[in-house]
Amino acid sequence: MNTSSTPELPVIRRLSEQVVNRIAAGEVIERPAAALKELVENALDSGARRIGIRLDRGGIDRIEVTDDGCGMSPDDLCLAVERHCTSKLRDETLVRISTLGFRGEALPSIGAAARLTVMSRQHGTDSAWSIRVEGGAVSQPEPCAGPAGTRVLVEDLFFATPARRKFLKSPRVESSHAENVVRRLALSAPHVAFRLEFDQRVVLDLPAQDRAARVAAILEAGQADGLLAVEGQRGDLKLSGYICAPSVHRATANGQMLLVNGRPVVDPVLRTAVRVAYRNVMEHGRHAVVALSLEIPPEQVDVNVHPAKTELRYADSAAVRALVIGALGRALGAGAGVAGVRPDLLQSRGPSAARIWYPPERGNDAADLSTRMAAPMPPAPQADPDLPPGFAESSLPLAALPAARKAVPQAVLEHADTTAAMAHPLGAAVAQVLGTYILSQTADGALVLVDQHAAHERLTHEILRAQYLGGEIRAQRLLLPEVVDLPARQVAVLLPFAPALARLGIEIEPFGGTAVLVRALPALLGKENPASMLRDLAEELEADELSTPAQADALDSRMDAIIARMACHGSVRAGRRLTHEEMNALLRDMERTPRAGTCSHGRPTWLKLEKADLERMFGRR
């Protein structure tokens, strides 16, 4: 123990280059996916047109990236593994950065934490050269055999920093992060072919393709019936890309592929803008599936915020948010029928069963088939005057119902407007199933299922919203004001908002104790039960701590949610039988109404089954 009154002064010393590199490696190379990202970015910056990637145990044991880019000379190899040496900065301003990499830290950081081998050959030269770095120790370049381009091999990642290696996740988790990195980079360069293998298993094999095809492949949005194109411009800012309909969503934001000047980013400004744009058309807690590319003047964005280069700082983040929200809002404003969803049961069927053999319709067996089909059939039973449970009296039963097959479908098909209706995106109504769903057929033979309550809820929502924004929601005064008893806390929430609710056509006033007197309701809602609706509105206001009578802006921001509650109460209920005219009118209104692909709560209003989908379900494919 030191008994001296003078404390021992610490000695400042210069750290060795090896320790400095290992410390810096911790910032750049957090996990195998981070190392892979840097290597693939280098390959893209080298002008590669084909990139092959192989990982063993999620990249913990081995990462191999091969490209056909410009390659490097022996001198270039020596500089490439030295910290802060790069060919990608033309000046020292750090403003006009047109490459994915520019810091000159990737290879030195990887070499400080792993066993790194770089083999490269320039086009037009006779020999390739290789250089090795192990735990920061650099060897001299040596000649070797190899094709034009560069091959980088990373083995035993973090062997030199065992503490970091202990914090790695399982190979499965690390593989997932690596795949996500490759998908984002592949999206940024659709002109480049990518091949990704995990433990000798091909995970991704993408040819050079146009941007639309690459987006469809990367998003894996097969459940979406098409993608919505996005275009927008605000001053010098330009936004383009594709998004899925709001009925296609995921539990995490991993389905959001965002590019800024061609650079994949995980940017909170852009993600917030996407969330706001989808807020009123998607289920709460779910995340949109998008692929967006923002072009912004280099001097208006700083990419040198973090060594990983995935976070940005904008000169005008408000303009960026406004551009994204506005462009996505216009794309999502299309009516139903533009992009839909196929049922989840089609997404994963496991190993395909053996094909079912069906008698041929032509050929040598046709005569035998005709003979068997010509055999006398037992007489069909007389049709029951009542249709099967779950079908509307005015709608068609399924063709599998022999008794009604000849009587009803033919009558509907003879309607003069049926063929014209089938040409619409949602087709012509055929039946009302279970008193809840409208079954329709399109001209291309697809079947469409519509949830009548969800669809009408969205239509009512949009009408109320338009009336509210126009300041003309029409109120219908009740002949006899209705007294509604509510819990005391709900009365206390509702009454301060009485002036704001009056703008929505709801006129209330206190009636003593726990009672509220209702004098008027929105005319669009018809004979709605005011007690049920007021309880729901009170819950909506009570749940939002920011919505107070003194904060008009906060209340206005919640009006869409309040209108959604009102729309739910004023919509066609499940179980109500509709005529064919009513069903077709609902389909046409859905096609004309913005955001009609989902209800006010974000659930899909319609699903689509193509002919190929049906064939897969029945084992014909």
TrEMBL record:
UniProtKB keywords: DNA damage, DNA repair
* Residue ranges of every copy of the DNA mismatch repair protein S5 domain listed in the record: 215-333
Any Pfam family hit: HATPase_c_3
The source's domain of life comes to Bacteria
Q: Which GO terms describe its biological process?
A: mismatch repair
Q: Which SMART domains match?
A: DNA_mis_repair, MutL_C
* Boundaries of every MutL C-terminal dimerisation domain copy: 429-578
- According to the record, the segments passing through the membrane are none
User: Is DNA damage given among the entry's keywords?
Assistant: yes
InterPro entries for the chain: DNA_mismatch_repair_CS, DNA_mismatch_repair_MutL, DNA_mismatch_S5_2-like, HATPase_C_sf, MutL/Mlh/PMS, MutL/Mlh/Pms-like, MutL_C, MutL_C_dimsub
Q: Which GO terms describe its cellular component?
A: mismatch repair complex
Q: Name one GO molecular function term.
A: ATP hydrolysis activity
Q: Known NCBIfam families for this protein?
A: mutl, PRK00095.2-4
Q: Which HAMAP family match?
A: DNA_mis_repair
Q: What protein family does this chain belong to?
A: Belongs to the DNA mismatch repair MutL/HexB family.
Q: What function does the entry list?
A: This protein is involved in the repair of mismatches in DNA. It is required for dam-dependent methyl-directed DNA mismatch repair. May act as a 'molecular matchmaker', a protein that promotes the formation of a stable complex between two or more DNA-binding proteins in an ATP-dependent manner without itself being part of a final effector complex.
Q: What is this protein called?
A: DNA mismatch repair protein MutL
